[in-house]
């Protein structure tokens, strides 16, 4: 029975597009039908709100099933859950409001649209953090908007690059953080920080400093892609050979929390691979 619930829960990521599109349509119709040119569409507005609300409740139900899988923990899960519930409830209340108190609603419809739109944005934001990691949206943003460990500036010289903060951690964030962050700890493992990475997961430490072949992280990213233990799973983009090599060298060098490539005396072939990882 539990597996069947997990199976149904996976449809959450498919169905969630329905309430987003329908409720955005409801808001658009609400605004457009205030002009005489589109007044003929007015009878369709209540039905659009109701359908959007029902789809939102279906999405919330599937979301609860999906979140029952191991690994969904943290505040972002709760924020996503409750913002989704509030979104579904607000859409239903808007439908009931315009049905039972149309004259009052005609004066308060902008507030209804504003609240629903805000909940749409909030719910999508928290859901996106769970799916892609908290830095996904701003990873490649320009200048000061770009996210990164400690708000670090882009690296322009390989020797000055910090091996963990500028190279290893961003790689893990890009390839692994969608399943291994503080809010979604698959296998109880988070790669959000150096500390959480070194603490490991439910099977113990994933990195043995100085011993890449004994480090479970390295083992998993170097397995054949069709192996059941290969990471990342579910068809996600795997690490490139250069990224794998750099992480392997970092582990062999002691898996340090910081230290520039120049001071660590990285060999030339490793520097060349780091340059490729950093797109220098």
Describe this structure as you would to a colleague.
The chain is mainly alpha-helical and about 280 residues long. The chain has 11 helices and 2 strands, in the order αααααααββαααα. It has helices at about 1-10, 10-15, 15-30, 45-65, 75-100, 100-130, 165-175, 195-200, 215-220, 240-250, 270-275; strands at about 180, 185. A two-stranded antiparallel ribbon has the order 1-2. It is elongated and about 75 Å long.
Write the layout of secondary structure elements.
Elements: H1 2-9, H2 12-15, H3 17-32, H4 44-67, H5 75-100, H6 102-132, H7 163-176, E1 180-181, E2 184-185, H8 194-199, H9 216-221, H10 241-252, H11 268-277
Antiparallel strand pairs: 1-2
Helix pairs in contact: 1-4, 3-4, 3-6, 4-5, 5-6, 7-10, 10-11
Q: Which short descriptors sum up this protein?
A:
single chain; 280 residues; 56% helix; two-stranded antiparallel sheet; mainly alpha; 1% strand
Describe, in short, the structure shown.
The chain is mostly helical and 280 residues long. The chain has helices at 2-9, 12-15, 17-32, 44-67, 75-100, 102-132, 163-176, 194-199, 216-221, 241-252, 268-277, and strands at residues 180-181, 184-185. It is elongated.
Largest sheet data: 2 strands, antiparallel
Encode the helix/strand succession as letters: HHHHHHHEEHHHH
Q: Which whole number gives the mean pLDDT?
A: 86
Q: What's the arrangement of strands in the largest beta sheet?
A: 1-2
Q: Work out the radius of gyration.
A: 24 Å
Number of strands: 2
Distance between the termini: 51 Å
User: Judging from the principal axes of the Cα atoms, what is the shape?
Assistant: elongated
Specify the structural class.
Answer: mainly alpha
Uncertain residue segments: none
* Helix content estimate: 55-70%
Strand content bin: under 5%
Number of helices: 11
């Amino acid at each position: 029975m539990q597996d069947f619930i997990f199976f149904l829960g996976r449809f959450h990521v498919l169905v969630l597009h329905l309430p987003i599109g329908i409720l955005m349509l409801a808001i658009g119709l609400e605004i457009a039908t205030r002009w005489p040119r589109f007044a003929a569409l007015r009878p369709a507005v209540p039905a659009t709100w109701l359908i959007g609300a029902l789809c939102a409740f279906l999405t919330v139900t599937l979301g609860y099933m999906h979140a029952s899988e191991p690994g969904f923990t943290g505040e972002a899960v709760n924020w996503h859950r409750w913002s989704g519930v509030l979104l579904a409830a607000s859409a239903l209340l808007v439908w009931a409001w315009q049905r039972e108190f149309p004259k009052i609603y005609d004066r308060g419809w902008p507030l209804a649209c504003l609240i629903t739109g805000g909940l749409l944005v909030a719910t999508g934001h928290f859901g996106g953090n769970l799916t892609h990691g908290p830095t996904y949206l701003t990873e490649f943003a320009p200048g000061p908007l770009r996210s990164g460990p400690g708000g670090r500036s882009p690296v322009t010289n390989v020797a000055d690059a910090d091996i963990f903060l500028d190279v290893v951690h961003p790689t893990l964030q890009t390839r692994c953080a969608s399943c291994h962050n503080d809010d979604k700890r698959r296998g109880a493992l988070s790669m959000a920080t150096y500390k959480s990475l070194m603490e490991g997961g439910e099977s113990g430490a994933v990195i043995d400093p100085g011993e890449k072949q004994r480090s479970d992280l390295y083992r998993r990213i170097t397995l054949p892609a069709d192996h059941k233990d290969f990471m990342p799973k579910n068809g996600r983009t795997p690490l490139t050979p250069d990224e794998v090599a750099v992480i392997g060298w970092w582990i062999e060098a002691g898996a340090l929390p910081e230290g520039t490539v120049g001071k660590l005396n990285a060999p030339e072939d490793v520097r060349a691979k780091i340059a490729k990882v950093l797109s220098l």
